[in-house]
Input
Amino acid sequence: MTVTMDKILCATDGSATSTKTVAYAIELAQRLALPLSFLTVVDVDEGDTPMIWDAEVLLAGKLPVDKPLVVAIEHALKAGMRRIAAVRAPGKEIAKTIVDYAEKNSYHHIVMGSAGLTGAKRFLIGSVAADVVNLAHCPVTVVR
Output
């Protein structure tokens, strides 16, 4: 079996766990010399087409309006990354939106965070990370 990894997708929502996730994804992408895209899911009615900022646009200083994406891009640029992108994907089902975007755009690895909830809290609140792991077509790294 051959494992192919051409690009990494990092889901971020601006939480404390996401900060660790972004740092991990940047280090992973640098070690493997792969492009890295940051994705945030927004629950708004903007149609079903994601907004994408590619490396050229980001390096020209045209940043997205979403704080989680801006923070992630700033960390990546500070780390010296230049093969980066930012994606704002509309969707009501966060896990499904992440997995669908990754699959449609041929990502081979998803990196995301988890607050590590267990028991009743996880049952009541749910776990986006667990849902992504269950739905994903590719490996998923969950950062805690």
